[in-house]
Amino acid sequence: MERTRERRGTAAKALLALVALTAVAAHAQLPHRIPPPRILPPCAQVGQQVTLTLNTGIAGGLPPPGTADSIWKVLPSITPFSTLPFNAPSLWLPNSANPKWIQPAPGGNPASFPVQTYVYSTQFATPVDPYLYTSITITGSFAADDTAIVKLNGIPIATCPGGSTPATWCFHSWHPIPAGVGLSLFNRFPGFLNTLTVEVKNTLAGSTSGLIVRAQVVAVCSKCTSPVPPPQPPCGGNPSTC
User: Fold this and answer.
1) Buried b (16+ CB within 10 A) or exposed e, 227-240
2) What's the CA gap between 81 and 103, in Å, rounded?
3) 162 with 146: CB under 8 angstroms?
4) Residue 26 pLDDT > 60, yes or no?
5) Helix (H, G, I), strand (E, B) or coil at 177
6) Which residue of 82, 147, 206, 208 has the fewest C-beta atoms within 10 A of its own C-beta?
7) Burial class, 5, CB count within 10 angstroms (exposed 0-12 / middle 13-18 / buried 19+)
């Protein structure tokens, strides 16, 4: 009888272990979180300016280092995490409350990466055809370790080729996204989905790599993006004039 109980107990433990291993394996096979595209706020009146932040390292409040970024991903589907800056301010720019540096690794401290290009990406949509705004553009700046190319819908809009002196380092100072990113670069296809990418190349094996962006989409509402007025009654409400 005792042996039977022991066998049953052993079998039960083995079954529980198998269930636990299966759960771990299933969790490991889950795809990384892909942030859904966000939408530029709708217009409430003519001439109103609406904005949408594209900052890195935002997750609501003051997230600690090592927090998953809520709006950026690293292609094809890697979740980037906020990190402390590497040897700031001597090398990397310091973090602020918003934005923060991000990297394609958890932990909250700068990690080492191979020579590789990491393509950071965030998506946003406009509630109407972008051509119905008076103006729409992306404004802001970025820094990256080591080099970077910023693209909107595949078209380069800013770059930092890097260099060997502090004045040319891409991670040591802010680099502007030039003003005047025009309407022609915004997507007019169904859904009006737009993709901002930053191609960050790590040029030294075993060195740090990361990205920080402080930018926003800025649009000025035109008459066509204001709420549709209620229909007017026939003949101005006076049938005798019809």
Assistant:
1) eeeeeeeeeeeeee
2) 6
3) yes
4) no
5) strand
6) 206
7) exposed
- Tell me the C-alpha distance between 186 and 214, whole Å: 19
CATH C-level class of 49-208:
mainly beta
Q: How far apart are the C-alpha atoms of 53 and 128, rounded to whole Å?
A: 18
How confident is the model over 174-233, as pLDDT tens digits? Answer: 999 987 788 889 988 767 899 999 999 999 999 999 999 999 999 999 977 655 555 656
The phi, psi pair for 209, rounded to 5°, reads -155, 140
Torsion angle (degrees, nearest 10) of CA 165, 138, 60, 93: 10
Question: What is d(CA 39, CA 52) in angstroms, rounded to the nearest whole number?
Answer: 8
The counts of H helices and E strands in the chain are: 1, 12
The answer to pTM > 0.85 is no
How many whole angstroms separate alpha carbon 228 and alpha carbon 12? 66
**Domain ranges across the chain:** 49-208
Summarised one tens digit per residue, pLDDT across range 31-78 is 345 566 789 998 888 999 999 999 999 865 667 889 999 999 999 889
The amino acid occupying position 219 is A
Reference 91, options 212, 197, 216; nearest CA is: 212
Q: Cα(219)–Cα(134) distance, rounded to whole angstroms?
A: 7
Lookup result for tokens 């809520």 = 70
Is 111 exposed, middle or buried (CB count within 10 Å of its CB: 0-12, 13-18, 19+)? middle
Q: Find, among 145, 148, 128, 144, the residue nearest to 136 by Cα.
A: 128
CA dist 83 and 98 (Å) reads 13
Instruction: Count CB-CB contacts under 10 A for residue 166.
Output: 11
